[in-house]
Amino acid sequence: MTNTTLQSELTNTSFLNDDRVLRAIQLIWHEAALLDRKDYPQWEELFTDDGLYIVPIDRETEDFHRSLNMIYDDKRMRKLRVERMMQGYAPSAVAAAITTRVISRFEVLAVSDEEVTISSAQIITAYKRHNTDVLGADLTHRIRFAEDGSGKIVQKVARMINSEDAINAAGFFI
Hints:
globular; single chain; Nuclear Transport Factor 2, Chain: A; 4 helices; alpha+beta; 26% helix; 174 residues
C-alpha cells in the first residue's frame, strides 16, 4: 500500500484502526494532561532533541523560521521557558492560570512507519485572578516513533484563532 493510498484511506474513520494513529492521539492527550497539571519537566521530555514548539502569528504560514511567532522554541528555549514557569518569580509563573484543555477533531495528515502528523482543535479554559478566558487553537503535531513504539513530538504548531489580536501574558503553555 502506498503512502498516498494509506493517506486516502485514513481520511475517513478507518484511521481509528491504525495503531500508530491511536498512539499519536494518546500522546497528544497525555501532553494536554501534563500541561493542565503544570508538569512542565515531563512535558519537556515529550519532545525529540530536535523538536520545535511553535505558536505563529500568521495562521497561514508554513515558513515558521522566517515568520513572526509568539513562540518558536527549540530544546534550549523550551528548557528556559519551563525554568521560568517553575521558578515563581516571572510574572507568567506567579499564580499561574488553572487550565483545562479539550482536544478533538483529529485529522490525519500523514502516516509513515516512523511518523504520524495529525491536526486537531484545542479549546483551553483558563482561570487566573478571578478571570476566566477561553482560547481556541488549531494544533498540528508531528510525532516520531521509536522501534519500541514510544512516540515523541518532533513539531507542535498551535495556530491561535485570535493570533493577530493583542494577547495578555497567558501564564501557561498553549
